[in-house]
Write a structure and sequence with these properties.
Layout: H1 2-22, H2 42-65, H3 71-93, H4 105-129, H5 135-154, H6 161-164, H7 170-203, H8 206-209
Helix pairs in contact: 1-2, 1-7, 2-3, 2-7, 3-4, 4-5, 4-7, 5-7
């Protein structure tokens, strides 16, 4: 489970990189959304789905790894990680609509599921670090939150998108947000591993500690 906490998001990152390296001619990284890969080509659909599920598995494993040493302190973060995992699963089951406007129920579910994922992960990192040193988790949570706000403002459905020329680069901002949030899950997983290592000596038999 601890290995999955890191391997899941790392796999998602590698699959995202593969989509951009081998299928660069299908979706513009500047103006196309990552979700468009799920409705463009059978191969990209499979890669995209595997990446989403790998990240979902990583979120669940990370939530489990954060149960020690203070479950009460990490409760909200763990709940948000599970919520993000559920959003990723729903977003995989229900593909997007290949347009800026939602026209189907599945597209609506996908859009809201993605919104839940994008929002819950930075909040999970912020809650965990709001009363302590930022570290990698705190920095990534706040930076990803800032880029998420910029992405939402630049999206074609935003009322200010035309004013800031968002239609020319909103896809790039989405990719930055996704990379930052994947790195945030990895940082949260590492925090869970550190916490588990810290309590491990206390769980060993007393005779083992005394040699």
């Amino acid at each position: 489970m601890i290995l999955m906490a890191t391997a899941g998001p790392a796999t998602a990152l590698l699959l995202m990189l593969a989509l951009h390296l081998f299928f660069a001619d299908l979706i513009s990284p500047m103006t196309g959304l990552l979700s468009d890969y799920a409705v463009t080509d059978p191969t990209t659909e499979t890669i995209f789905a595997l990446g989403m599920m790998a990240l979902a598995a990583g979120c669940v494993a990370t939530a489990w790894s954060l149960t020690e040493p203070n479950p009460a302190r990490t409760a909200a973060t763990r709940v948000l990680l599970i919520v993000a995992a559920a959003g990723l699963v729903l977003g995989t089951i229900f593909p997007t609509d290949l347009s800026a406007d939602v026209s189907t129920l599945g597209g609506e579910i996908h859009r809201w599921s993605t919104a839940v994922v994008f929002t819950s992960l930075p909040v999970a990192g912020w809650i965990l670090t709001r009363r302590g040193p930022l570290g990698a988790v705190g920095v990534l949570a706040r930076v990803s939150g800032a880029f998420l706000a910029a992405y939402l403002l630049s999206h074609p459905t935003s009322p200010v998108s035309a004013l800031i020329g968002g239609e020319a680069y909103f896809g790039l901002l989405e990719r930055v947000v996704v990379v930052l949030e994947i790195l945030l899950v990895i940082a949260l997983a590492n925090a869970g591993k550190v916490a588990q290592r810290a309590v491990a000596p206390a769980q060993r038999p007393e005779h083992a500690l005394n040699g």
